[in-house]
Automatic annotation (TrEMBL):
UniProt keywords, alphabetically: Ribonucleoprotein, Ribosomal protein, RNA-binding, rRNA-binding
Name of the protein in its database record: Large ribosomal subunit protein uL22
UniProt cross-references to InterPro entries, sorted A to Z: Ribosomal_uL22, Ribosomal_uL22_bac/chlpt-type, Ribosomal_uL22_bac/org-type, Ribosomal_uL22_CS, Ribosomal_uL22_sf
Gene3D superfamilies per UniProt: Ribosomal protein L22/L17 (3.90.470.10)
The species this protein was found in: Alsobacter soli
Record-linked CDD domains: Ribosomal_L22 (cd00336)
GO CC terms of this entry: cytosolic large ribosomal subunit
Gene Ontology molecular functions: rRNA binding; structural constituent of ribosome
Lineage, top ranks: Bacteria, Pseudomonadati, Pseudomonadota, Alphaproteobacteria, Hyphomicrobiales
Record family assignment: Belongs to the universal ribosomal protein uL22 family.
GO biological process: translation
Protein function: This protein binds specifically to 23S rRNA; its binding is stimulated by other ribosomal proteins, e.g., L4, L17, and L20. It is important during the early stages of 50S assembly. It makes multiple contacts with different domains of the 23S rRNA in the assembled 50S subunit and ribosome.
Length: 126
């Protein structure tokens, strides 16, 4: 006896994965997320593999998780998947202080980000 299961928020042809608490600023993460928006997953994975950004490895892991969710949980065809959405949100910001001249302190902010990737199955064109 418990609460009824929450209905699925996404349509049947979509799957998502969320990476939380990534140690990078949302602005930098959004640059990498912009690389993969709207692309087929095979192309997106290749772009992330050869990206020179440090956070691209974590974005690739999240994309692979979304692909695995689509394949295993929702029975979608991996070859027809497209990255329909990739959006970035703010998480916490650690505040640190850096010693400056004449006994003062400079504030150093170390931001964290959340990344959500939604993949959609599209029908193959004939």
């Amino acid at each position: 006896m418990g609460k009824p299961a929450t209905p699925r928020a996404l349509p049947d042809n979509e799957a998502k994965a969320v990476a939380r608490m990534l140690r990078v600023s949302p602005q930098k993460l959004n640059l990498v997320a912009g690389l993969i928006r709207g692309k087929k997953v095979a192309t997106a994975l290749a772009d992330l593999e050869f990206s020179r950004k440090r956070i691209a490895k974590d974005v690739r892991k999240c994309l692979e998780s979304a692909i695995a969710n689509a394949e295993n949980n929702h029975d979608l065809d991996v070859d027809d998947l497209v990255v329909s959405q990739a959006f970035v949100g703010k998480a916490l910001v650690m505040k640190r202080f850096h010693a400056r001249a004449r006994g003062r302190a400079g504030r150093v902010e170390k931001p964290f980000s959340n990344l959500t990737i939604i993949v959609r199955e599209v029908e193959a064109q004939a």
